[in-house]
Amino acid sequence: MRLLIILFTCLQISFSQEVNYTILISFDGFRWDYLNRGITPNLDKLKANGVSAESLVPVFPTKTFPNHYTMVTGLYPDNHGIILNEFRDIKTNEIYRIWDTNQVTNPKWYKGETIWEIAKKQNIISASYFWPGSELKDITRQPNYFEKYEHTRPYERRVEGVLNWLQLPIERRPKIITMYFDATDSKGHRYGPNSKEVNDAISKLDSIVGSLVEGLEKLNLLSKTNLIITADHGMTEVSKNRIEKIYNLVDKDVMLEWSEAFLFVWPKSDKVDEVYSLLKSKESHFTTFKRDEIFMKYNFGKNEFIPPIVLVADLGWILAAKEPTEKELERFLIGNHGFKNNEKDMHGIFVASGPSFKKNFQTKILRTIDIFSVLCKISNLNPPKNIDSDIKKIEHILIEN
Ligand SMILES: [Zn+2]
Hints:
By secondary structure, this protein is an alpha/beta fold. The chain has helices spanning about 1-15, 40-50, 65-75, 75-80, 100-105, 115-120, 155-165, 185-190, 195-220, 270-280, 290-300, 325-330, 370-380; strands at about 20-25, 50-55, 55, 85-90, 95, 125-130, 145, 175-180, 225-230, 235, 245, 255, 260-265, 285-290, 310-315, 320, 335, 350-355, 360-365, 365.
């Protein structure tokens, strides 16, 4: 009898250690309603076999790097450090920019623990085929396998790369994989969210889902793989005719940074209240926030690199820190994001399918911040304490154990 109990306990342990594969895929700027355009047969199939949310609310600011790094740390940008795609260390004046490889791979900017680091510590192998924060120059913080970002690398090759990892001998095979594709963002910026070009990008990404599913099926891994398909933010139309010239509203000694859907305002330290009142009185197509006010609304404002005043544009408006040059106006993008995260146009998609997820299950709006908790849960990883991600807000999409 005792032997039987021991045997049973061993079996239970080996079952509980049987971790499924998880592939987290980000389609940059894939707005929530792109799934309703009738051009996504492969994603529709996943929806029917799994879970789909009405939409996914990103963290503020609704920009690429802050949101991607939130997905893999379960922290708000205030806490994980990547507060924008471009920001300044106010102590050293160094600037983090997403196209500056030296900065993007510099561990100093990145706080928190990523899913790759946590997996490594808990003896689960992970891999990343492109993801913000996956290429840090610190081996303890890297996934076991990763590819260096190459914007033009063909999408089919990325799928092939992931399928190759999944054919490694079991003891070297990754269980958690992240993948990234830019098409809907690039085309959305250039041609706007309602363009034919964006629809072509949607179809292309949908066919990538098809190729991946087919590849997993051939490897007999589909039934053991959780696929999570998501987006960092949505997209909305902007216009050269909707630029708010903030540089005309304040004195020259007030530093303005980042002409975007938001603007950083650095008044002299004794002028904060004065500049705040002035901007408040001139508000049109934007809202003026002090740090604690914007924190209360958007969990953004405690980070040391955020200025005393932040302006956020109304949907579809851009705030200018300086007079745009002719060249800048020529290159003006007609689609953009970065706006308040409660604007529905800023919401992305969430579709998930696999052994851990309910079948044919629709849910209301999910939050990007909670994706991390799901990643940990379905991979049997203990998440770090003091994260912002909340499993209770998302566990209803999982099959109960
Ligand atoms: Zn993006």
